[in-house]
Each structure stands twice: as structure tokens, then as C-alpha cells.
């Protein structure tokens, strides 16, 4: 996935607009069609992560740094194996989530 490079482009645009037009956080958020909380974080020098990764991290109780690194490498988290595994071992559920293929999953937790 290229979510991190997309995020970096947004971060660069925020810094550029702040520098050239000195817009408020709200104006920047509106202009770039992104969450104002993300704009504030960027301007405060905090690291930001794609929302897809923060949601996955929250769902499985994993550090967002780890989720970002692994998913950018093409891995998926299996909550049954409790491990990062290649995305090819997963199938996509209708709900948008990924499930580890039955034959490959160790099903430690049943
Ligand atoms: Zn599994």
C-alpha cells in the first residue's frame, strides 16, 4: 500500500500552505479536505499515521508504528495466529476486513 507516501504528500502540502499563505488550522483542513486534528498534529510537529492504520491498530490493540511498518510491507495481522503474515495468505471478507485462510491459520484461540 502507498498510504504512507500519500500521507507524506498531505503533510508536505500542509507545511507548504502554512508557509506561503499562513492559513489557520481550520482553513488548512478545509482547503485540503482533511481532519483539522491531523492538521494541528502536523503543525505541532507530531507524527501522523494514515487513518486506516490507526483504526487497525485500535482494533487489535497493536502499536500504530508496527501496524504501519508491517502493512506497508504487504503483511496482514491474524488475530488467531497472533502474527503478521503475507497478505497472499488472506482473503477479503465482504465487510472489508481480511481473514486468514483456514488451511494456513493455526487457530491458536479456537
Ligand atoms: Zn491465522
Q: What does this protein structure show overall?
A:
It is built from 5 helices and 4 strands; from the N terminus they run αααααββββ. The protein has 2 domains: about 5-45, no CATH class; about 65-110, no CATH class. The radius of gyration is 17 Å and the shape is elongated. α2 crosses α3 (about 35-45) and α4 (about 50-60) packs across α5 (about 65-70). It has helices spanning about 5-20, 25-30, 35-45, 50-60, 65-70; strands at about 75-80, 85, 90, 100. It is of the alpha+beta class and about 110 residues long. The strands form 2 sheets. A two-stranded antiparallel ribbon has the order 1-2. Strands 3-4 form a two-stranded antiparallel sheet. β3 (about 90) and β4 (about 100) form a beta hairpin. Bound molecules: zinc ion (ZN). Zinc ion binds near residues 81 and 106.
Amino acid at each position: 500500500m502507498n498510504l504512507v507516501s500519500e500521507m507524506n504528500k498531505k503533510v508536505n502540502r500542509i507545511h507548504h500552505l502554512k508557509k506561503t499563505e499562513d492559513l489557520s488550522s481550520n482553513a488548512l483542513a478545509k482547503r485540503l479536505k482533511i481532519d483539522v486534528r491531523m492538521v494541528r498534529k502536523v503543525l505541532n510537529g507530531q507524527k501522523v499515521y494514515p487513518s486506516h492504520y490507526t483504526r487497525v491498530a485500535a482494533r487489535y490493540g497493536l502499536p500504530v508504528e508496527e501496524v504501519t511498518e508491517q502493512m506497508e510491507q504487504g503483511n496482514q495481522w491474524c488475530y488467531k495466529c497472533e502474527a503478521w503474515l503475507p497478505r497472499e495468505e488472506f482473503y477479503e471478507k465482504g465487510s472489508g476486513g481480511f481473514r486468514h485462510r483456514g488451511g494456513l491459520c493455526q487457530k491458536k484461540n479456537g
